[in-house]
What does this fold into?
Amino acid sequence: MPYAHITGWGMAAPEGVMTNDDLAKIVDTNDQWIRERTGISERRIAGATDFTSTLAVEASIKALKVANVRPTDIDLIICSTSTPEYMFPATACLIQDQLGATKAGAFDLLAACTGFIYALNMGAQAIRSGSIKTALIIGSETLSRFVNWKDRNTCILFGDGAGAFVLQASERPGGVLSAVMHSDGSGGDLLTLPAGGSRFPATESTVHEGLHCIRMDGKEVFRFATRVMASATLEALDAAGLKVEDIKWIVPHQANIRIIEAAARGLKLPMERFVVNLDRYGNTSTASIPIAMVEAIEKGQIKEGEKLVMVGFGAGLTWGALAAEWTGPLPSKGHVRPEQYRRLGRVRSLVRRAIRFIEGLLYRREL
Ligand code: ACO
It folds into this structure.
């Protein structure tokens, strides 16, 4: 049975930075409160030309470069997101087109902030089963488009960004070792974006009542998060036959430093073993774990052969954890330039549209 290795990684964050002081100009808050209660100092905010797919493509090209994998070699693209560009088509299909990943299947996965764990596990399982060889797993969000900028309970927390991993099959042991996924829909109302779906389609009143923005019971979500972070980590370790002492790093969902500190206490581990970068990005939902991973790898914190656990929680309610052994890129030949495929992908996309247009005209004439 092949192993699923994480062989490439990349992240993207919009250029626009919003500091706590910037927020204090629009809602009744202040830098000290936000830093003390959340650990966040600033977050990135999507500009007019940043979208969930464009951030994802930027992160993906970096990940493909690290793995030395061509977009045309990807079998499957999973985009985990709570902020898709449309109800449909899936954002993963927009990414497939922009990358020129011509043979890939593509779908979106919605498990809120736990989504990246779910998606990584789905990709790894597809590789382990032997049905695919290469998967591109993405977490990408433009949460700022759904934030109520008048609600100080939520607008201080969220930021935009994307992270991507390349997963590849190899006979060499390692890579994704285990994963656990959980949900409890009875807590669905604690963190929700009420309107815009089929239950409450957009109407004048849904817009007027602000139902297209994130709503959250912060205290309840906090309580739930502190309960599940340590337990999910231990479950994933158990499933992999590992103990806490065996792992070097915990990479938690970056929601609130106090939640991460509670997890550290629950696991009886020092904070130095936790990868934390929420001070600069805030909560980027499903993108937060891959962004934290990429920064830690690029800083040389996470090294080959080390074992780690990624653990997350979020709306749904959902939570989960994934244990992995870090191996890095597989040996490969040649030098791949994924950005060239992106350029070619644009041309290919235009040509396909033109062909579809001409075929449409011919078909109508035949009728
Ligand atoms: N600035 C200043 N004061 C504030 C702010 C603010 N931004 N927000 C709330 N306050 C006030 C409150 O009004 C309250 O005042 P009061 O005591 O006079 O009523 C006081 O500060 C304390 O408010 P609490 O809500 O008790 O603050 P708490 O310590 O719980 O922190 C927070 C709030 C940061 C939202 C916390 O509950 C939290 O992090 N919850 C988890 C949220 C989370 O992780 N969500 C993401 C889930 S992942 C996903 O799926 C997207």
